Amino acid sequence: MTRSSSFPALILRTYPVGEIHLGVRLLTAEQGVVQALAHGARSARGKLRGVVGPFHSGLCYLYSDPVKNSHKITDFDVRSFRTGIREDLDRYCTAALWIESVLAGHAGGSEAAELFALLENCLDILSEIDPPKVPRIEALFLWRFLDILGAQPEPGRCSLCESIIPGAVEASYSSVTGGFVCSRCGGVRPPSLSAGARAYLARSDLLSVEEAVELGLAAESMRELRRLLIHITSEVVEVPLRSVAVTLGLQGDTAQR
Ligand SMILES: [Zn+2]
Q1: Topology classification of domain 3-81
Q2: According to CATH, what is the number of the domain 84-247?
Q3: pLDDT (0 to 100) of residue 253
């Protein structure tokens, strides 16, 4: 028994299948990540050619065989191509990092709708963002992604003794507890986060992504924040996000505690 369905979807990744087809990994609000075949998407006359591509969002028409658990894309009505992402290397690397993280860390389930909305929103912003704000949106996505996965550390509280970490001090992150630790419990050792970066995260939580991306942070604190968020995300999804870390010049900088 087969069935047809249509739903909003975001294309995460494509890969060649045979001579003329594309394998596709989609993110959907209801089912999370779905694997499907875009029939003839690489052939010169295929109607899915140029339509099915990474970062594209739209209405996906799917033909499914539940017995074989196979899905075929019969049409894809694109709402947004997000061409701005491919036009800039920093934007592209940021989108690639997010998608790598989502594919590694998202197991489906109840958080799919929230993740779908977050990634859609952040990719829309990224596609048109000014260069200086790229690090901000990169960090904001990862921070909220960790929250969706239930792995976001509390920036203002020690994960060991549960005391409030004073707002004006640097705080270390512990991979053992998956949280920040106060100076009494762990001293200040890398990886750590400045008071400014921790305050930045706390303030961003009160805002929409569109508003939070307007918040500035000193360049050195932003570098530290991105490094730490990639470090935590790699640990949580249990995959070293290595290619992206290399791109950002962050290799060898993920000291374990
Ligand atoms: Zn403590």
Answers
A1: OB fold (Dihydrolipoamide Acetyltransferase, E2P) (2.40.50)
A2: 1.20.1440.120
A3: 38
